[in-house]
Amino acid sequence: MSILRLLGIAAVLTVLAGVSASAEMIVYTSDGNRYVLNLTCPEIRSITIDGGSASVSCGDSPASSGTYIDDWGTTVTTPCGEDSFADQVMEFHVGHPSPPERHWSPERALGPPDFTYDYSNILVLGCGGVVTLAWNNAFLIDVPGDDLHIFEANMDRVQDVEPVQVSVSPNGWHWYNVGYIQAGKSSIDIGPYVRPGELFRYVRLVDMRGDCDTNYPGAEIDAVAAIGCRRR
Length: 232
Ligand SMILES: [Ca+2]
Ligand SMILES: [Ca+2]
Ligand SMILES: [Ca+2]
Fold this sequence. Notes:
This protein is mainly beta. It has one helix and 18 strands. The longest helix has 10 residues, at 10-19.
């Protein structure tokens, strides 16, 4: 029996499995045999070749990374996969004027982006609205370049400035203002504002009243991703 440990190319295999459930890899062994393996795992631990058969051992951990496209066409890669997305609402205060009450559900800003044009999967902040979210499966960290991406919905395709002030916190009481996003520029580098190596669990979004005179006042938030992340 021989076991091929695929430590170095695990990430590549993960991408293949995500693209197609029927993705295949061909393995040639030193004795001249050829094996075709179906790669359906989110994470491959090992490939075992025993006599005339070969099998894939799947890991039980979630996919190591994910790629998402926001409503503005920006491609966002989240190294921690779905764990990169904020997954708990800590507080929400709708702004005034307010959107219709059925659009206030802050849970719609949790998890991976799932935006549709019926407004059913986004949180409309209201003019000056505030939402605070948390990560339970990963920390936001500073990495080279952008660290945080706010998936904001471009609802009317005309309005292109809905500024939101963004703060992050390691503990819920000490906050760092890390700047602003507006539609079309939705990624933030927290590096200039935080201490090296710090781990952040909370993010707060404050609508800056750029879109108050519409039926949907305030920014539309679909999801919040830690591009710079470390799994807990
Ligand atoms: Ca950074
Ligand atoms: Ca709006
Ligand atoms: Ca959503």
